Amino acid sequence: MSFPIAVLVSGEGSNLQAILDTVHGRGGIEVVCVASSRAAARGLERARAAGVEAEAFEIGGYPGREERDAALGDWLEAHGVRL
User: Fold this and answer.
1) For the chain, domain boundaries
2) Distance in angstroms (rounded) separating the CA atoms of residues 2 and 81
3) What is the average per-residue pLDDT within 14-21?
4) CA gyration radius, the chain
5) Using CA atoms, how far apart are residues 72 and 56, in angstroms rounded to an integer?
6) Residues near 77 by Cβ (< 8 Å), separated by ≥ 6?
7) H-helix or E-strand containing 6?
8) For the residues 10-21, what does the mean pLDDT come to?
9) CB 76: neighbour CB atoms within 10 A?
10) In the beta sheet, which residues pair with residue 34?
11) Which of 6, 30, 48, 55 sits 20 to 30 Å CA-CA off 39?
């Protein structure tokens, strides 16, 4: 049974890398997507290099925080994220 998870990053993505190295693909756990509030976050590059979909949800791209948060929630739901 698969357990899809998302990882939220804000910078270098060192914690993401640790998750990819130690957990991803083991015991049914799959990192299915990575999101950040910063388009320049290196963690997004790390995700893409590992073949994981990554997206930035910068507050400036939305009318307000609520709209940005709703877009992020919809994106996570579309990926079937459970954690």
Assistant:
1) 3-78
2) 10
3) 97
4) 13
5) 9
6) none
7) strand 3-9
8) 97
9) 18
10) 7, 54
11) 30
Mean confidence (pLDDT) of the chain: 97
Phi-psi domain of 48 (left: phi exceeds 0; alpha: psi -120 through 50; beta: other)? alpha
Q: Which distant-in-sequence residues (6+ apart) come within 8 Å of 40 by Cβ?
A: none
If you count them, how many residues does the chain have? 83
Q: How far apart are CA 33 and CA 7, in angstroms?
A: 7
CATH of 3-78, one of 1.10.1740.10, 3.40.50.170, 3.40.50.800, 3.40.30.10: 3.40.50.170
| Residue 52: per-residue pLDDT | 98
Mean pLDDT of 22-46: 97
Residue 22's identity, in one-letter code, is: T
pLDDT at 26: 94
* pLDDT value of position 39: 98
Rounded Cα distance, 78 and 27, in Å: 22
